[in-house]
Amino acid sequence: MTRLIVGPFNRVEGDLEVRLDVSAGQVRSAQVVSPMYRGFEPMLVGRDPLDALVIVPRICGICSVSQSLAAARALADAAGSTPPPNGTHALNLMAATENAADHLTHFYLFFMPDFTRPVYAGRAWFDEARRRFAAPGGEHARVALAARQRWLELMGILGGRWPHTHSLQPGGSSRAIEAAERLRLLAKLREFRVFVERQLAGDSIDVLLALDSEDALQAWADGGMAGDLRMFLRIAADTGLASLGRSPGRCLSFGGFFDAEQRPAFAPGLWLASGLQPLDLDSIAEDATHAWLAEGGAPRHPRDGLTRPEPDKPDAYSWNKAPRLAGQVAETGAVARQLCDGQALVADLARRHGITVYTRVIARLLELLRLLPLMEGWLQALVPREPFAVRVELPAEGEGVGLNEAARGALGHWLRIEGGRIANYQIVAPTSWNFSPRDAAGTPGPLEQALVGAPVQAGEATPVAVQHIVRSFDPCMVCTVH
């Protein structure tokens, strides 16, 4: 048995290290290390509750809208307030804009460049992959980056700026959208849809979303040559991504993107191979056994969470706590959202292969396609001159929870107000779930389990299979160590 330390990782938000025990060319066990501490939760204690809207977006520059939305919902919950229909649609649009940009960035800038590494130089597809995806000069990656830049101009109209957009409020959105602005937004949305259909999908969104099985997906792929999705499918088949990085197979989603009656576009739940189960929020607990943080007794629900550093704690190896659902490991992300929502193609892939690198990437791309028609519907539902926000009076004493689906998965903010000030504020981010360390029972987190069995070729210091698995979860380490 040899110990291999992989990290720091490039093309990852924040610091990440993976410790691997390797034997006979395979990973036998793994420890995922979040080596940085930031302390946003104790930073918020004692402040005016509205200060959270300014501070928490700065946890991350990639998913700042997601953090803002969770904070706004926690404050709204404490006040017993609900945004008006226009406000709900505007919040959906900002969150979806950020998530779609994240999915695009993940595919072109974070995930696909690993297939241009020299280890793949002998593959028939290598030269074409390098032309399209090589960092930083791949032709398709450059086009995608330009499309992303134009896409994020939506945030200037919807929220005034990005990142750290301050228009998200407990009562809705402080940025009202006029009729002419709605037309501009629709034009930008349709421009982005053309890019997605021509370069990424290689077909219309409607055709892709009608595929309901892996057989249908393969028949579609065999019927043409266009699109980077087809290129991914070709590479995935040749490199065995469908069997790489299998996680425990428990997926959670808080549900996302609500209509005027607060019904979710993506259903919440706990997905198991045996079927969808209702999600019990009271069963969430954070285990700090192997974190450089005080344990405070048994694992704690976030409403009573504790964030107190213990950097010299024995047997600890990460600044990340271990979130668990009813004591069990759970994965979150686009694959969880699509499984909980019953997306037929993702469900068939999970049935055939489990939750693997292949399943995660396909789920993210399908979600990107699903978001665009939803966004068009929310834009068309806006009623200019109607309220986008209501006035919210926060209580001097109270509690609230704000749940949101960020691009990487389930995000929760738990808030307690005492004497008009924040008495406790706890955040459980998506990468907290996926990159969690072992718990008190010694059970590894989702990524730690997914890495077991990964091949390590002779002489590899940064095994390419490990890179694929890690990137399929799309880590955001700065959110993890909030």
Characterize the structure shown.
The radius of gyration is 22 Å and the shape is globular. It has 18 helices and 15 strands. It starts with a strand and ends with a helix. The protein has 482 residues and is of the alpha+beta class. Strands 1-2-3 form a 3-stranded antiparallel β-sheet. A 3-stranded antiparallel β-sheet has the order 6-9-10, with helices on one face. The model has no long low-confidence stretch (mean pLDDT 96). Strand 2 (17-23) and strand 3 (26-33) form a beta hairpin.
List the helices and strands and how they pair.
Layout: E1 2-6, E2 17-23, E3 26-33, H1 40-44, H2 52-55, H3 64-79, H4 85-111, H5 126-133, H6 139-151, H7 153-159, E4 168-169, E5 172-173, H8 179-201, H9 205-209, H10 214-222, H11 228-239, E6 251-253, E7 256-258, E8 264-266, E9 269-272, E10 275-277, E11 284-287, E12 322-325, H12 334-340, H13 344-353, H14 357-381, E13 398-406, E14 409-418, E15 421-428, H15 430-434, H16 446-451, H17 464-472, H18 477-480
Antiparallel strand pairs: 1-2, 2-3, 4-5, 6-9, 7-8, 9-10, 11-12, 13-14, 14-15
Helix pairs in contact: 4-6, 4-7, 4-14, 6-8, 8-14, 13-14
Strand order of the largest sheet: 1-2-3
Alpha plus pi helix count: 18
Strand content: 15-25%
- What is the number of beta strands? 15
Low-pLDDT stretches are none
Question: How much helix, percentage-wise, in residues?
Answer: 40-55%
Shape: globular
Q: Determine the mean pLDDT.
A: 96
For the sheet with most strands, the description reads:
3 strands, antiparallel
Given helix and strand content, the structural type is alpha+beta
Termini separation: 34 Å
Rg over C-alpha atoms, rounded to the nearest angstrom: 22 Å
